[in-house]
Each structure stands twice: as structure tokens, then as C-alpha cells.
Design a protein that fits this description.
single chain; 16% strand; seven-stranded mixed sheet; 491 residues; globular; Aspartate Aminotransferase, domain 1; alpha/beta; CBS-domain; 36% helix; 3 domains; Aspartate Aminotransferase, domain 2
């Protein structure tokens, strides 16, 4: 089915400024110029605009002077595969023309060879272990892979206990419920995080209270935590955002002094370290996610770690419908079914066998990104605190439009036009409908970071030439934006 390409079409009276306006809306990086009969005369990309401006063209000049006239086009009489074969390293935008030469569709190199922001790496023993589950008929939450996965995970994080769960959100809920968080209680949560952190608090009947984050680490600011504590505060939930650990020493000191629990949200930070201690062992409980885009995956799944035996036993009971371990079908609590299946655990075990290889390679990816982006105007690199080991769940940057000449959304659109998927930072939680927040509170750092943050393709299998592709694209987008801004502000 042909797409609507009307946004890509301009007539021959269009100026370079008109073309730029269309390109900034995000149209796979190309504009087609057509005559009064709708017949295609040429095309322009951002590269054509750049070359025109370098030749001292004015934005008010006719775009037709600089368009590519000897373009390659497909035909609506061809099959899609026949048209795709016309794409090459140099032909990245293929207009599809009807019998009269009018553009009726397009195929972009970007949509065919798309670089995802994250993909799972399943090249180890995953299939072998899952096959073993199927052959043995142990596919539900009963089976040896559950206990084996929990044990290898416990040893890796260096805690006394690890309890698998159905996903990361249920891990958070289970930890809070195990600690007795309930109606009327408050839990302090960073304002810049995924909604699951706050949702788990709400599911306990408690209220999430938001604290601003630090501008350097992007994680919860200890002084902001202290300011939000009331007589109803029960716990603090530091979130190790995008793989960067929180500054835990002051948070732990506050919690000890004020008699509060700490539930670490480690969903994005498996393997991250704070002062040479792995996250997940720095509070009363640590909660991990194994969604398909995490450092390791089980498809869906989670884990709670703790050194507290009583808490572990209570969470284990709550996870299994609140049933007694000694008296079958006798319920001690109104519990949950938050169990992980043997199939998921089999995948998790295979993933944990390679976790250090994953993290080592990620460091190489980060170094490559840093080589490309260090010193690029307006690009702020990910946190790199000396006391932390950031595992870079996603390599994330902040874009300062004043210096780069391009805002976050236009950067994302420009990368999308080049076949590169990205993710914006999370929206601040304090302004979202499910959560009540004091309207007099201010979150200046979150409000500054959230609309400027962008996560780039990162993964255990991303190739370094793909990292190069992203880095070079960002540098080109910034260079073009600064060039255009100079022309637009020139007298």
C-alpha cells in the first residue's frame, strides 16, 4: 500500500527555506520538487542544502537551482523488491513514479536498513536450555532453571538472596510490599525515571513523592531527598538511571538517620558499581528487570536481591500467592502470582553466563561513541563519575540547542531519516496524570534534562561500524544546523 508522501512534495517556486522547513518536520530527509502537473523535476536532501549554503546561497534562493535532476526513480509498475534493488550506497531516497512521472510513493534506505536502539543477544546457550525445558516438560515456574538462575544471579551481585519474578515492575512491588509499605505511606522517587518506579508505589496504596535529580549524574539528588522527608515517609527508591549508579553514600546516611528503607531500582543497571560494590546490594532490596532491551533478558522477568533473610522469606511467600510453605493451600497473606517460568529462567541462566562479555563489549562501544562525540558543540556526554561504573544500558546524551543549533526532537528526526532509531528521555513524573504532586514544588534539573535527553543505539551486539554511523550522523546534523543558523542570523 502506497504511503502518503504529500508532505514530501513542493512545487518549483519553493525556496531553500521552504525545503528546510519541510525537512525539519521529519520526512525521511528528502523533498521532491514537482511542476504544475505534479511531474517530478528533482529532489533535495539536507546534504544539498548544506552544499548550497557553502556556495554562499541565500535561504531565499529558488530550491530548483540546487536540486538533483538526474535522480534514480522506481516505478509503481514494479514490485517492491524490484524497487528496493535500485537503492544503493549513493541512492538512499527512491521516489516511486507513476506512468506520467508523478511521485506516488517512496522507499528510503533508512527504513530498509534501520538500526534499532536495542536488540537482545541470544547467541549462547539460550536455545539449548529452553529446549531442555521443553523436552523435560518443565516449562512453568517449577523447574531447576529457576533456582539455578537465582543462584548465579545472587553470586554475581554478592547478596545472600535473590528471588526471581515475572518482571521488573513486580520486583519493585514485591520489595515494597515485603517491607510493609502500604496506604498512607510515602516513598521518595526521582522525578526523572520510567513510570514503573512510581507505579509500584501506587500499587501498594502508598504515595510517590518526587525529588529532583542531579545535573551531573541524572540520578536522584540526596539533598532533594532530605527536603522531601515527612513523618509519613517509609522508603527511598534511588533509580540507577540508564546504567549510572546513584550517589548512594549520602542516601544511605539519610535513610539510616531517619529510619527509612531503601529499595534500589536497578532495572537499567545490572553490573553497575558504586565505589566497587555492585548495585542491588546497597539498600534493603535491589530490583532488576530482564525485559528484552535490558543488559540481559529473559523476554520478561525480574529479580529482587537482599541480605535480609526475613524479608526474603516474606517476599517468597507473597510471590507465591501468599501461601504457607508448610501447609499446602493455606494463605498467610493475600499474595500475588509473580513467579518466573522455567523457560524464562533458562534464558536468564544462559544470559548470565555471558554477562561480563556483554559489559566488556559495551565499554568498547562507549569509548567509540565518546571518540566521535567528545567536543561536538552542544552534545553533553553520559555521566562518568569517578566513584561509579556506569554500564550504559543505553548510551544517552543531552543536547544543548543553544550551542548545537539543533534541538532534541529535530536531532531524533534527523537520525530517523538516516535509519537510526533513538529514544527520548522519560517525561518528568510530577506532571503526569496518575501522580499527585504539590504544584508549588519545582524540579529545575529534571525539567531541563527531560526535553533535551536522547538515547542512542546501544546493545550487546551492535557493531562498531554502526556506532561510527551514528556518531558521524550526529556530527553532520550539528554541523549543518550550525551552518544554517549562521545563515539565518546573518545580516
Amino acid at each position: 500500500m502506497a504511503r502518503d508522501i504529500s508532505a514530501n512534495l513542493l512545487d518549483m517556486t519553493a525556496t531553500l527555506r521552504d525545503v528546510l522547513t519541510v525537512l525539519n518536520r521529519g520526512v525521511f530527509g528528502v523533498v521532491f520538487l514537482v511542476d504544475d502537473d505534479g511531474v517530478m523535476q528533482g529532489l533535495l536532501t539536507d546534504g544539498d542544502i548544506r552544499r548550497a549554503l557553502l556556495q554562499k546561497a541565500s535561504l531565499s534562493d529558488a530550491a530548483g537551482r540546487f536540486m538533483t535532476r538526474d535522480f534514480v526513480a522506481g516505478s509503481d509498475a514494479f514490485s517492491r523488491q524490484e524497487n528496493i534493488r535500485l537503492l544503493t550506497e549513493h541512492v538512499r531516497h527512491l521516489p516511486i513514479l507513476d506512468g506520467q512521472g508523478r511521485p506516488v510513493d517512496m522507499i528510503s534506505w533508512a527504513e530498509i536498513w534501520r538500526l534499532p536502539v536495542m536488540e537482545p543477544s541470544l547467541g549462547g546457550n539460550e536455545l539449548k536450555y529452553v529446549t531442555d525445558c521443553i523436552v523435560s516438560n518443565w516449562i512453568s515456574s517449577q523447574g531447576e532453571y529457576v533456582s539455578r538462575f537465582e543462584e548465579i544471579f545472587r553470586e554475581y551481585v554478592s547478596t545472600d538472596y535473590a528471588l526471581s519474578t515475572s518482571n521488573g515492575t513486580t520486583a519493585l512491588h514485591l520489595a515494597l510490599a515485603g517491607l510493609g509499605v502500604g496506604p498512607g505511606d510515602q516513598v521518595i522517587v526521582p522525578d526523572l525515571t520510567f513510570g514503573a518506579s512510581a507505579n509500584a508505589v501506587v500499587h501498594c496504596g502508598a504515595n510517590p513523592v518526587f525529588a529532583d535529580v542531579d545535573r551531573t549524574t541524572w540520578t536522584i539528588e540526596p539533598s532533594a531527598v532530605e527536603a522531601k522527608i515527612t513523618e509519613r515517609t517509609k522508603a527511598i527508591m534511588p533509580v540507577h538511571l540508564y546504567g549510572q549508579p546513584c550517589d548512594m553514600a549520602p542516601i544511605r546516611e539519610i535513610a539510616k538517620r531517619r529510619g527509612l528503607f531503601i529499595v534500589e531500582d536497578c532495572a537499567e543497571a545490572l553490573g553497575a558499581e558504586y565505589k566497587e560494590q555492585k548495585v542491588g546490594r546497597l539498600g534493603d532490596a535491589g530490583c532488576f528487570s530482564f525485559f528484552a532491551n535490558k543488559v540481559i533478558t529473559t523476554g520478561e522477568g525480574g529479580m529482587v536481591t537482599t541480605d535480609d533473610r526475613a524479608l526474603y522469606e516474606k517476599m517468597a511467600c507473597l510471590r507465591d500467592h501468599g501461601m504457607s510453605k508448610d501447609k499446602r493451600y493455606w494463605h498467610i497473606y493475600a499474595g500475588f502470582n509473580y513467579r518466573m517460568t522455567n523457560l524464562q529462567a533458562a534464558i536468564g541462566l544462559a544470559q548470565m553466563e555471558r554477562v561480563e562479555d556483554f559489559l566488556t563489549y559495551r565499554r568498547t562501544v562507549v569509548e567509540r561513541y565518546n571518540e566521535h562525540l567528545s567536543g561536538v558543540a552542544g552534545i553533553i556526554l553520559p555521566p562518568a563519575a569517578t566513584w561509579a561504573k556506569n554500564v550504559h544500558w543505553l548510551y544517552s546524551i543531552v543536547i544543548d540547542e543553544r550551542r548545537s543549533g539543533v534541538d532534541r526532537d529535530n536531532m531524533a528526526a534527523g537520525l530517523s531519516d538516516r535509519g537510526i532509531e533513538t529514544r527520548p528521555f522519560f517525561y518528568p513524573l510530577h506532571g503526569q496524570p496518575p501522580y499527585s504532586s504539590d504544584e508549588t514544588d519545582r524540579y529545575p534539573v529534571t525539567d531541563w534534562l527531560a526535553p533535551r535527553g536522547l538515547s542512542l543505539p546501544t546493545g550487546n551486539d551492535i557493531r562498531l561500524d554502526e556506532v561510527d554511523r551514528v556518531g558521524m550522523a550526529i556530527k553532520r546534523i550539528v554541523s549543518d544546523a550550525r551552518l544554517i543558523r549562521r545563515h539565518m542570523t546573518a545580516p
